[in-house]
Structures
1.
Amino acid sequence: MRPSWQLACVRMQQQLAKGTKLIAALKQHYERYHGKDLAALKELYEHHAENCVRAAELTEGPRRREEYLKLARASGPKRPLAPSMDG
């Protein structure tokens, strides 16, 4: 007969294995059903960043231009940002 500490270790390993399987199943479910949503969200952020860069290029005020560029940086642009024209 095994000592009680060994049984506790075996039970703990079984619980960890169940938890790992559950996490893997949830990850697979999330990727399968929400992968398109994430791609669409990424595309939306990139589009927003491009719009912010365009707005910065058309804006004359240096403060407002810099705010548009900050928004673009936060949204993860695909193309390089227009340089700040403050100085």
Note: The mean pLDDT is 79.
2.
Amino acid sequence: MSHPEAEDAQGLVKEIRRTLRGLVIATVVLFIAVTAVGGYAYVVADQNRQAVCNLRTDLQHRVKTSEEFVIKHPEALKQFGITKAQAAKEVSNQKRTLDALSVVSC
């Protein structure tokens, strides 16, 4: 003959095991989800960093060629209706953008 208290204890143990199993499964699923989201965020951040680095490289080239063009062909600006002050301002704006992008490690 079984004791009611023993049966109650066995039922409680089964309930606790079932609950723990569910918690373990939920923890594993949550860990996988967090890892996947973190991995995706890392990939996107790296792509964005590469894009900013490409932009910075392009701007560096533009500043250099713009400065060289103004020095070598000062009369050409007049043909396009661009003053030296406008060209200097554009180069200055590009340099400010380069300064802002300098915080990115390439």
Note: The mean pLDDT is 90.
3.
Amino acid sequence: METQIISDFISKLGSSDLRSFINVLEAYLESDAFRKSIEFMGFNSESGYVYLTLCNDICIASRHGQDVDFLAFDDDGEEITFPNYYDALQYINQ
């Protein structure tokens, strides 16, 4: 069942969105983020972000095939962008 969900997700992405998804997966694997469970993966058609949300609420996101952003959220729910996982993790742990 999970394989079908991933397959359905990937088949709905355009070429630059698929590149974004690959960038997100590579960033997940190349950082300490891979030690955290993936809670959700998705595509936000409004922002163009393809993203993974981790169990610690950090998102790894990319849009239009560009480099990834690591996202955390402040107390008001506003998105804060970080250049790497470590900086996002430091923010949520403060």
Note: The mean pLDDT is 90.
4.
Amino acid sequence: MTDRVRRLTVVLDGDYRDDDVESIVEAIKMIRGVARVEQHVVDAQDHIARTVVRAEYEAALHKAIDQVFALKKFDRNHAAWQEKEQK
């Protein structure tokens, strides 16, 4: 037996003015099985959530970059050490 789906959530790729999004709303309403389309206005919580995600992403990216440079530094130091040992 398969599950029944009652609701889908559509998230837009950015913030749009309400008059600009009207064509998207109308297009979604034309899809078979759509009973209602609601618009949700952007509020402070949306901006806070985006800021938190952006900060977490940037921190992870900085950590990855730091690890790459640490490995390169280790490789250079290790190669210099090996050269000294061979002489």
Note: The chain has one domain: 18-86.
